[in-house]
Amino acid sequence: MPGLKAGDSFPEGVKFTYVAPTGQLDLTTCGLPIKYDASEEFKNKKVVIVAVPGAFTPTCQEQHVTSYLANLDNLKAKGVDQVVFIASNDHFVMAAWGKANGVKDDSILFMSDTGLAFSKSIGWTKGDRTLRYAIVVDHGKVVYADTDDVPKSIGKSGAEAVLSKL
Amino acid sequence: METSTYLLILFVLFIVGRAVFADRSPIPETSGKVFKITTAAEFDAVVASNTHVVVDFYADWCPPCRAIAPVFSELADSHAQAGRLAFAKVNVDHVNNVAGRYGVSAMPTFLFFEKGSPTGVAVQGIRPRQSVSLTGDGRVDRIRGADKAALQAVVEALL
């Protein structure tokens, strides 16, 4: 499995879809699915992409998202501008997952790797789902990229692991 | 079965029924004066041929859009003036490139065009709130959400 590794450039043409969070306007607005041009956005930001096999699945829910929610300030202190969670689920499911985790703003964005396009392009998929991985992109360059091959473990892609590499 | 079981079943049916029978039919447009945009070219033509255009970005499946539709229609009926003040609705599912152009991320979003571009509107006494975003110099940049009072205030300021 090729994947990405530290030192690579983040590939061009990577796009995700997501529903923009509406926060306190939840009762009077409906979020609109929009395309996120990841390759463009990552050129001037420091971003952590976290891929999970599935929204709402046990490990992802109990450990993965919570580890990032708990470490948001630590990540910001190390210069991370944005945390993006992706999965094979569609953008509506991802938006609901974000809301279920109480994320009302854009501190963590929940996006769909539509059709597994990105994950397939780097070979980090298993069947219809992405592998569990984390990639740190700093202004277009990959600084850290690793997958968790041990089931139920977030040792390589959890917030603590990523923090230790920043 | 016990009463509580009946009540539980009725409750579940109520919740499920609401979701299943939620209105996804096209939101009716009652005003003949609202431009129902179907293409980007049509949109460009409307904003080019009217000094001021109030644009409603909406979707049929969005309940707040359905709720504010009659308000929008009524404003169009009362205040539209050919060439000077027009009202247009853009269904984001059918005309999706136009919404993307203006960074529309929630619906309904109301944008106010003057001479072809989105322009802030100076509205006396409007207080900034979640649904009303202001430009740097205090003009209303856009309205996000079904905020009837804000929409009426801005349209009145355009008259």
UniProtKB/TrEMBL annotation, chain A:
Entry's Gene Ontology BP terms: cell redox homeostasis; cellular response to oxidative stress; hydrogen peroxide catabolic process
Keyword Oxidoreductase: yes
GO CC annotation, single: peroxisome
Active-site positions on this chain: 60
Coiled coil: none
InterPro entries linked to this entry: PRX5-like (IPR037944), Redoxin (IPR013740), Thioredoxin-like_sf (IPR036249), Thioredoxin_domain (IPR013766)
Transmembrane segments: none
Keywords assigned: Antioxidant, Oxidoreductase, Peroxidase, Redox-active center
Protein name: Thioredoxin peroxidase
From TrEMBL, chain B:
Keyword Signal: yes
InterPro entries attached to this UniProt entry: Thioredoxin-like_sf, Thioredoxin_CS, Thioredoxin_domain
Pfam families: Thioredoxin (PF00085)
Origin: domain of life: Eukaryota
Keyword Secreted: no
This protein's UniProt keywords: Disulfide bond, Signal
Ranges where the Thioredoxin domain occurs: 14-159
Signal sequence, renumbered to the chain: 1-22
Sequence similarity: Belongs to the thioredoxin family.
Protein name: Thioredoxin
Organism: Lasiosphaeria miniovina
